[in-house]
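> call design_seq(struct)
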């Protein structure tokens, strides 16, 4: 939480508030400590507003002061003193990578941190947009869904009154009888009921989409928690549904789900959803570019491996990869997509989320012309 987000400073909240959160994330990644590790919420807010954290290089001896300066600039108390664009952050990090002449493992760690920083900024903005969009849509659709029930009841009452009137009066005036024949009252009754049913189905579908958006973003779940893996998979599938029906003559991409009986897993749900999204999008991209496949299919399989681990597999019958390519796919910035269509960060970030954040494994098995299979294995509870 940036100082301006506490509500105690008369300052506007904008994208630079997110940079403060990125600084906190980077601080924890590099030092293994939170900037202010306090249990009292009021004291924590006061520290974010008025106190400077211990410089990262003082917590970790092998960390250059230049890196520490980047973190502290991200966490400046005022937005004006922070970076004004993500380009500035990336430029300074690249400078550190160039001049940081320490061990190779430390260089790789900084590079991974850089990719995490870029992706965190993107996912933070995406998550806020998704959550806001879900909220804005949910309000009007709640009005529509709620009023459909009353509208149907009111129409049923009117229909009952009309039928009672017809029975009581008997012979109707010629003009009224002619008008009833013109509008075909029985058809009108049935059609209005069909309209109400279709409106209800549409309203329910929008609610399910909103729920999927909320489950995917999960902005309020930065800590690990017990979660339903299948719920995360289904929420993510709802976000790529539009890509499964490509325009033109390309065949529809089929999704086959083979879900096992999984227990709830202690994990970071939003981060796992990000991994699922990356793997699904990559599989769809591969299938849509593979003209030789007339029945493109993605298979998602879940199973319990043993008493302590579960497994999630994403398989496709796309073009597959050579051994040379598959050995590099988890490297930062490596991509086989044309310029402008891929950053090379998706699988690198996914690998880091599974191996570092969840103490699990992410592997790939692929052969040219035989499709690809990505396997995630994570512990049910933290190791």
């Amino acid at each position: 939480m940036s100082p301006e987000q506490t509500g105690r400073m008369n300052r506007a909240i904008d994208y630079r508030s997110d940079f403060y959160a990125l600084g906190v994330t980077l601080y924890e990644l590099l030092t293994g400590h939170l900037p202010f590790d306090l249990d009292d919420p009021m004291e924590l807010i006061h520290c974010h507003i008025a106190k400077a954290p211990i410089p990262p290089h003082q917590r970790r001896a092998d960390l250059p002061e230049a890196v520490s300066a980047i973190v502290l600039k991200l966490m400046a108390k005022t937005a004006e003193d922070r970076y004004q664009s993500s380009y500035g952050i990336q430029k300074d990090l690249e400078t550190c990578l160039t001049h940081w002449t320490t061990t190779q493992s430390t260089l790789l760690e900084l590079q991974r941190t850089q990719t995490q920083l870029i992706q965190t900024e993107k996912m933070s903005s995406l998550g806020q947009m998704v959550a806001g969009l879900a909220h804005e849509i949910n309000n009007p659709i709640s009005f529509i869904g709620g009023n459909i029930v009353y509208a149907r009841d009111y129409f049923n009452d009117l229909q009952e009154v009309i039928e009672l009137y017809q029975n009581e009066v008997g012979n109707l005036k010629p003009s009224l009888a002619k008008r009833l024949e013109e509008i075909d009252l029985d058809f009108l009754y049935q059609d209005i009921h069909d309209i109400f049913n279709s409106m209800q189905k549409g309203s329910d579908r929008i609610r399910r989409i909103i729920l999927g958006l909320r489950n995917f973003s999960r902005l309020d779940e930065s800590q690990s928690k017990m979660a339903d893996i299948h719920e995360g998979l289904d929420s993510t599938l709802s976000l790529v549904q539009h890509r499964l029906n490509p325009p033109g003559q390309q065949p529809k991409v089929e999704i086959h789900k083979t879900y096992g009986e999984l227990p709830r897993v202690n994990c970071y749900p939003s981060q796992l959803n990000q991994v699922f999204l990356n793997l699904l999008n990559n599989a769809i991209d591969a299938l849509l570019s593979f003209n030789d496949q007339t029945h493109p299919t993605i298979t998602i399989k879940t199973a319990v491996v043993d008493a302590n681990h579960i497994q999630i597999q994403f398989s496709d019958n796309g073009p597959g990869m050579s051994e040379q390519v598959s050995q590099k796919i988890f490297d930062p910035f490596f991509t086989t997509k044309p310029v402008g269509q891929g950053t090379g960060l998706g699988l690198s970030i996914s690998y880091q989320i599974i191996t570092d954040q969840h103490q699990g494994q992410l592997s790939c098995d692929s052969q040219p012309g035989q499709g690809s299979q990505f396997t995630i294995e994570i512990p049910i509870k933290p190791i």
